[in-house]
Design a protein that fits this description.
The protein is of the alpha+beta class. The protein is 36% helix and 25% strand. It is built from ten helices and twelve strands. The strands form two sheets. The chain has a seven-stranded mixed β-sheet, sandwiched between helices. A five-stranded mixed β-sheet has the order 1-2-5-3-4. β3, α2 and β4 form a beta-alpha-beta unit. α1 (32-48) runs parallel beside α2. The longest helix is centred in the N-terminal third of the chain and has 17 residues, at 32-48. It is globular, with a radius of gyration of 18 Å. The protein binds cobalt (II) ion (2 copies). One cobalt (II) ion (CO) is lined by residues 6, 46, 49, 181-182, 184. Residues 6, 46, 49, 181-182, 184 line the site of one cobalt (II) ion.
Length: 295
């Protein structure tokens, strides 16, 4: 737990290890099916970020049955089951309670060959940083809550949040990634900072190369900026070195409900990884200086 890695790892003594994580959250979109998918995809991301393969999952649901129909709850559960089936992960049980607010998610167990485990602590100066999904979903979900989000932008954000990181995860092993983590609540810069701290390195990010959801920037300029993202940005004070515009940095600090993997790869492995993982983009490099620089 000390290095703030994505999941807990328990060695079984035969060269394999269990990889375990739990993630639950409250609704981020109106559609119960989309929300269920996003919650399940996000719960699996911590397994994929360690280079592990999901095996089993336990489902958790809290539901205000006096306020919301059980047909909506069924749609949430159906979505979660669909994602777990797509991931080849067996749902072996679960628990539901009556609660004041809908809350949904999974505890997931995966396995990995212990000496292939990818932690967040192995990045080395000279490694290349790759991000596998565009940023901006925090801005878009905030805009949705305010009713100012165009439909096509919302649809793209839902697609991003509900697509599995399975390929991005299995390619970590086949291409020899030195470190990885999934980008979620702390935003791109927050998770990059954790990875750098755990590895004892710094990073230089090229803002223009970071993939963004089309339309997110305009929504941010219109004021769609979540409280959690503002806290992410505040926590980077004294760590971040940049002359980029405030809006650029806000996009990099935006809280991602269910984002992609942030991966450090040896330079010679980058081309193969990016070719194999749809949407993956080179966004910067690992440096020896323990700072976060955005150029
Ligand atoms: Co994580
Ligand atoms: Co997590």
């Amino acid at each position: 737990m000390g290095s703030g890695d994505d999941a807990g790892v328990y060695a079984l003594g035969d060269g394999r290890a269990l990889v375990q994580t739990v993630d639950i959250f409250t609704p981020v979109v109106d559609s119960p099916y989309d929300w269920g998918r996003i919650a399940a995809v996000n719960a699996l991301s911590d397994i994929y970020a360690m280079g592990a393969t999901p095996l089993t999952a336990l489902q958790y649901l809290a539901w205000p049955r006096d306020k919301l129909g059980l047909d909506l709850a069924s749609a949430v559960i159906r979505a979660g089951m669909d994602v777990m089936a797509e991931a080849g992960c067996t749902v072996v049980g679960g628990h539901s309670i009556d609660g004041p607010e809908p809350t949904y998610g999974f505890a997931v167990t995966g396995t990995v060959i212990l000496d292939r485990l990818v932690t967040n602590a192995g990045a080395r100066p000279g490694d290349v940083l790759v991000l596998t999904k565009p940023l901006g979903v925090g801005v878009v979900t905030t805009a949705l809550k305010r009713g100012i989000c165009p439909d096509e932008v919302a649809a793209e954000a839902v697609r991003v949040m509900s697509s599995l990181n399975d390929r991005a995860g299995s390619a970590l092993i086949s291409h020899g990634a030195t470190a990885a983590t999934d980008v979620t609540g702390f935003g791109f810069l927050g998770h990059l900072r954790e990875l750098c701290q755990a590895s004892g390195v710094g990073a230089q990010v090229s803002f223009d190369r970071v993939p963004m959801i089309d339309g997110a920037r305009r929504l941010l300029e219109e004021g769609a900026w979540a409280g959690g993202s503002a806290r992410n940005l505040a926590s980077l004070e004294g760590v971040l070195s940049t002359e980029r515009h405030e809006i650029d940095i806000r996009l990099l600090a935006d809280a991602q409900t269910s984002g992609g993997l942030l991966v450090a790869l040896p330079p010679e492995a980058v081309e193969g990884y990016v070719r194999e993982v749809e949407g993956a983009a080179v966004v910067g490099e690992v440096i020896a200086d323990e700072v976060l620089r955005v150029v």
